[in-house]
């Protein structure tokens, strides 16, 4: 069984670039939410690494919660349907929420979640997305805190998966084509 690094074709965003960008956004968020007792909501599973790094780079006290949503199924194409695999554990009524997400692709996951959190009574809902694929956007979402635009290639790492694997890669990368063709090696 090969190491994850052996399956990578090329790196798109290095760990150092990720950490630098997260640090810049965390500084803005710390000022924007000072005194507002924000609730950070990570969209699992993809946002796990982004939430871990980002929350530690923020300098004000925050509350964290987690919602597990799925739109992709097991392939590389978004299905457009959103499934709640695991819901939040807290009441969002009156809260200032910052959604923490790894990537905006079609925008359907975030469009659904913003609407759902407002329906539940959140006082405000903003988005931090580490990555965006502008070429694939289908629905409009307002991403206030934006990390990197990336090309329309299937990427993995730093939380992003291919068929539930490669979330543990420590940078954002494109897999070798053979990975999509063969079984898990
Ligand atoms: C991926 C990604 C985003 C979403 C983006 O999650 O982590 O949450 O798809 O796609 P969209 O903009 O087209 O909705 P996925 O559904 O694969 O679940 P995961 O986070 O558990 O991998
Ligand atoms: Mn996701
Ligand atoms: Mg996924």
UniProtKB/TrEMBL annotation:
Superkingdom in the source lineage: Bacteria
Domain Phosphoribosyltransferase: 16-162
Xref: Pfam families: Pribosyltran
Keywords: Cytoplasm, Glycosyltransferase, Magnesium, Metal-binding, Nucleotide-binding, Purine salvage, Transferase
One GO CC annotation: cytosol
Enzyme class name: transferase
E.C. number: 2.4.2.8
Catalysed reaction, written as an equation: IMP + diphosphate = hypoxanthine + 5-phospho-alpha-D-ribose 1-diphosphate; GMP + diphosphate = guanine + 5-phospho-alpha-D-ribose 1-diphosphate
GO biological processes: GMP salvage; guanine salvage; hypoxanthine metabolic process; IMP salvage; purine ribonucleoside salvage
GO MF term (any one): nucleotide binding
Protein's pathway: Purine metabolism; GMP biosynthesis via salvage pathway; GMP from guanine: step 1/1; Purine metabolism; IMP biosynthesis via salvage pathway; IMP from hypoxanthine: step 1/1
Cofactor(s) listed: Mg(2+)
Compartment(s) of residence: Cytoplasm
Similarity field: Belongs to the purine/pyrimidine phosphoribosyltransferase family.
Record-given protein name: Hypoxanthine phosphoribosyltransferase
Lineage, opening ranks: Bacteria, Bacillati, Actinomycetota, Actinomycetes, Bifidobacteriales
């Amino acid at each position: 069984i090969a190491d994850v690094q052996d399956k990578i074709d090329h790196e798109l965003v290095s760990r150092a670039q990720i950490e630098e960008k997260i640090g810049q956004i965390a500084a803005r968020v710390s000022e924007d939410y000072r005194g507002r007792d924000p609730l950070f909501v990570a969209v699992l599973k993809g946002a796990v690494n982004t939430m871990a790094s980002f929350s530690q780079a923020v300098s004000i006290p925050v509350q964290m919660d987690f919602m597990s949503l799925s739109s992709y199924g097991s392939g590389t194409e978004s299905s457009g349907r959103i499934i709640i695999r695991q819901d939040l554990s807290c009441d969002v009524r009156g809260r200032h929420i910052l959604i923490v997400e790894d990537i905006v692709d079609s925008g359907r996951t975030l469009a659904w979640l913003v609407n759902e959190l407002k329906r539940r009574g959140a006082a405000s809902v903003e988005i931090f997305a580490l990555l965006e694929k502008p070429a694939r956007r289908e629905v409009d979402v307002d991403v206030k805190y934006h990390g990197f635009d990336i090309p329309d290639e299937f990427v993995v790492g730093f939380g992003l998966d291919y068929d539930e694997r490669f979330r543990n890669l420590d940078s954002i990368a494109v897999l070798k084509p053979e990975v999509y063709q063969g079984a898990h090696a």
